[in-house]
Every structure is written in C-alpha cells, then in structure tokens.
Design brief:
- This protein has 697 residues and is α+β, with helices and mostly antiparallel strands.
- The protein has a domain of 297 residues: Beta-lactamase (3-Layer(aba) Sandwich), CATH 3.40.710.10.
- It is built from 30 helices and eleven strands.
- A hairpin with a 6-residue loop joins strand 5 and strand 6.
- The protein is elongated, with a radius of gyration of 35 Å.
Length: 697
Amino acid sequence: MNILFDLQAEPLWQGLGRGLLHSVWQGALVAGLLGVALVLLRGKSSNVRYAVACTALVLMLLFPAATAWQLGSAPPEGEPGEELISAVAAAESQLAPEAGARAAGRAAAAGPVRESVAGSRPAGESLELLLPWLTLTWLAGVLLLSARTLCGLAYTRRLRSRGARPLGESLQERAREISRRLRIARPVRLLESTLVRVPTAVGWLRPAILLPASAFTGLTPQQLETLLAHELAHVRRHDYLFNLLQTVVETLLFYHPAVWWVSRQVRNEREHVCDDMVVAVTGDALVYARALTQMERLRKARPGLTLAADGGQLRSRVLRLLGTRPHGRRPPTVAAGVVFLAAVLTTVACTRAVLSQKESDRRPAAQATAPAAVASAVARETAGAATQGATSGNASLYAGDQTEGEDAEVRRVALEALDGHAGTVVVMDPRTGRVYAVVNQEWALRRGWSPASTMKLVTSLAGLGEKVFDPAEKVRVSGRAERLDLSAALAFSDNEYFKSLGPRVGAERIIDYGRRLGLGEPTGINYEGEYAGRLPTPRAAASAASLGFGEGVEVTPVQLAVLISAVANGGTLLAPRVPRTPQEAAGFVPRPRRRLDIPPAALGQLARGMVAAVERGTASAINDPKLKVAGKTGTMVNKESREASAGIFASYAPADDPRLAVVVLTRGERENGPGAAKIAGSIYKALRGRLSGNQSN
C-alpha cells in the first residue's frame, strides 16, 4: 500500500494513468478513421494500404504517450494553496482594508485551488483514486504479455537447432536466385524442420527459412518455389523486426480492442505486399494461389504443435491473387489520402484540446498569482459585499454545508467562535471518530492546505519512533538564550530547532510516518468529494528540513483532526463518521483504519510538547487553569510580504482524558496559528460540560 501511495504522488505515474484513459477514445477514433481510409483505398496498392495501417498503429501509441508525458512531466511548482493565499493577500492590500477583510473568505471560495479540488465532483475524486490501481493493472498485463513474448522468442530461437537440418543444394541455389531478384544481400539459411507446419521466416540479423517436411511431398517444385519466394520477401522487407515492434505495441495497448483490429489489418496488408512481390518474381499468380491452398490442406491434415504465425486471411488472399474479388468504383488515392490526413489532424487537434484543458485545470493557481487578475476578482467580490452590506459576514462559506446528522449545538458554538473569521472548524470525538460538526466543508474536506508547523508533529514522531534523537537533549538554537528540548521546541514552534532535527530524521522517515498518520490518503469520512491530500516521495521532497514546515505536503483539516485524534487515543487511526440517524448516533461504533506502529512513549513525548504549547507557548492565549488542552499551531506566511495569511490549530482536550478534538483553520490578512488557537479555546469553553463528562456526547 505504501508503494501505491508513493506512485500516486509521482506526477509521471499520474500522467501515465490519465494517458491510458485518454487512449481509449484516441485509439477508437484512429481505428475508425483507418477503417474509412481502407474503404477508400480498396483495390489500391497494397504498399499504400500497409503504410496507412502502420501509421494508424503508430499513432495509437504516440497519442497516449504524448498525453501521459504532457500531463505528468511538469508538476505544479510550490504550494498552490500558499501561492493563492499570497496573491490574494497582495491584491487585498491594494484595496480598502475593511473591504478586503469582508471579501477574503468568499474570494477564496470562488476559485478552485488545484485540479483535485476543482474536482469536488465525487466522480472526479473517485477517478483520481482509481488511477493508480488502473495503472498497476495495466502494468501487470504488460508484464504478463511480455513474458509470453519472451517465451515465444526463446522457442523461435530453438527452432533453428532442434528438429532442423539444411536443405539440398538444388533448392539452396534456387533460393539464391530468388534472393538476387529480390535484391537480398544477406545470406539466408534454408532448413527443413519437423516442428513447423507452414513455411516460416525467423530472425533478422541472421535470417533463416524453415520449411515443413510435408512441403516436399505434398507440393510441386513450382509451388514450393513460390512459397519460398514469399518467405524471402518477408526477409527482404525485414518483416521479422517489424512484427516484433508490432508485438510491442500490442503489449502496451493490450486492453484496447481497436488496437488488435488495426494490428490485424497491418498483418493482412503485409501478407498482401509479399504476395505481390511473389507474383512479380515468379510471374504466375495461379501457381502461387494453388500453393497457398495446398499448403493449408497439408497443415490441417497434420495436427500438432504450430507457431502462432498469422498468414492473413487465406481465402481473401487467394481471391485477390486470382483477381476474382468484385470491386466497385475505386475512389482516387488522393481522396483517400486527404481523408486519412484529415483524420490524423482531427485526432491531433482533439488531443491538444484535452492537454490544454487539463493543463489549465492543473494550474488554476497560476491565474491567481497574476496581480491584475486577483485584484480584479477581489474588487468584484468587494463590490458585491458592499452591495449586500456589512452584515453578510462569511455566511456564503457555510451555505453549502451538509448538516444532516451533525450536532446542532457544536455547529452553533463553532460558528459563534469563528465570529467573522473566514475559516473552517472540525470537531470530533478522538476516542470513537464520531464527527460532531464540520463548518465550511469545502475548505475542510475538498481543499488541500500546507500543514505549516503542524507538520513538526510528524517530524517529531518520526524521530522519536526511530530513536534518532533524545527528546530531553537540550539544543542551543540561534536567537534564544536558553537551550531547548523537544517539549520546548514544540511549545514555541521553534524553526531553528526543527531545521536541525529534520535532516537527522530524514525525508524518507518523515514521509513514512506522515503516511502512517493518514496523510496522502482519504480519511473515509462520509461526506462527498473528499480530497486525499498529497505527500511527496523522498526523491521529490525539496529537503528533510523543509518537510518539517509542510513544504511539498498538502493536508485537509479533517486529516489533521484524524491525526491529532490518533495522538490523543494512543495510536489508533480512526475513520471519521457523522451518524446520519438517531439510531446510528445512539449506537455509534468506532471504525479503526489501523493501529499505528508508533511507541506509546513517543506519543506521550509529543503530548507533553503540545500541552506546553498551550500552557506557555504559541497557544498560551487559550490557557485555562481548569482545562488542560494539547495542541499545535501553524502559520502559513505570505512569501512576498512575510505577513501571516492563514492560521491552523490542531488540538484535543482534556489532555489526560481526551473527549474532543478540534481543528481550526482561518485565512485572511492577519490570521495566524495563535489566532486559530484562540478560536478553538472559545469552542472548548462553550463545550466545557462535554469535556467534564457531565453531558452526553
């Protein structure tokens, strides 16, 4: 499963999956247009028809390959969520501060942050999750067919030595004469084989022709000569090599019926080309037609092992040689060429349109980073807010929430605590995974955010779990007079401490523990359109130090709620659920996803640092002597102005007997982690009865 998530995070792997999906319509279109072209070219030169069929087969491979490369070669740079935040903040700074504050939340909700979020549609999200599985299934099929091909090549190689002997000099001389007429410069071995039932040309660099023993008793010398000429024609055209390349295409696109149809047309036309070469060399189509018919009779009369050599449709070949196939009015070759060229251009245009659309979907944040565009969008939102009046607040952020089954009191308390802040709140029971409320579900479930300094929890757990460092060790950090241990570093969210800790832990361990804690995968919450977040691979991560600040990582507030609940309950990752009926709420059953392989002592060390953050650190504004809260702040910063633009607080309480987990994320010009913590403190204060156990949960 870990390997799958690594692959899911790889842009090239995602591009490959999308390329395979697009190949379905691309291949069908190319095959359909090839069918039209072959009808228009009926009765024309077999070389022309063969070239057109080969072109179609190559295009069926090139189009999805180009699509996969385009969609997977250039992942979005930086953190899209932070880029959008920075751009909006910069634009708002040019407007009236009070107007910008009113518009901050709604301006963000107006546009998607990334492709997967733009896919708040359930079908799109499901497709994103299925892509790695579809690609793995394709890869398994390719490996299976490749093994079969390799076995076939090994068997063909053995045919040269097992059950084979050289032919007489007279037939060898006749073969050399035909080779001169066909301008074959390389020597070709002639062998009589007991293992083949039809004449077969094998090899490319050192070609050989295998003739069945039955050919010498059931065919006249003239007939045998024509069949020999046919195989030499294959040698002249290097068809053994081209057939091998054709098999590669069939292997890569094995799932597409249209590919097999096109490939069959290629083989049929290849046989027609060689048939024409035989007639040109021998000058007797009737003898050759009789030789083909007699060879087929001999083959059927001798059951046994046979090579999988497709000689085309025998009946149509014979009729074509005898000229008895009825033909209607033959369309001009130029018209057929124009139709096929138009078909190819149509497919190219469709593919480019898909790529352009996908590229625009993948980088919607690029529009947001253009100052003029953002300023225009914020200005429009500001104008709308002015029209509605100052009392509208951020109601539009919560208007689309699905509240069925949520706890009405908890939702009311969360909304009151936000008090005009543009943000989202998740409240759940860390012991069972029961979700009481998700305010602003679009931000909490369907949008990816940088975890900022909350990612320091993952770095700490990775180091503690793997015993990379001593949490009690006092470390001197720049800018502080006192040395810091892990608890103090978490309490003050000291960047210098974690800059030195990250490389010691290593990117691979940090990402591994992030995955254990549920990052980079859906939580399974029963709302539609959940975004899975993003974890980079160790190779794609900028550095272990930057991972400690969330660079390259995207999470949802619901994922943070599940993560912090796992810390609170002692190491069980739960599937968050909202009971949709009173009966389900009364008999709520926890749904564990997995038990974390993390030592309890490591979780205890982490909890001490989170309690210290509330008692004397970055979240001290909510310190309540009557209630022990454990939490971690995070602040996303505008990279240009270095001003705070979003705040996160992930927490649970009481720290010694957790009953509620609260995650708050706010966004705006002056938002930060301590501010988000203050909102969470208001929620805990309003729900104090539940925390003491005096009120039913």
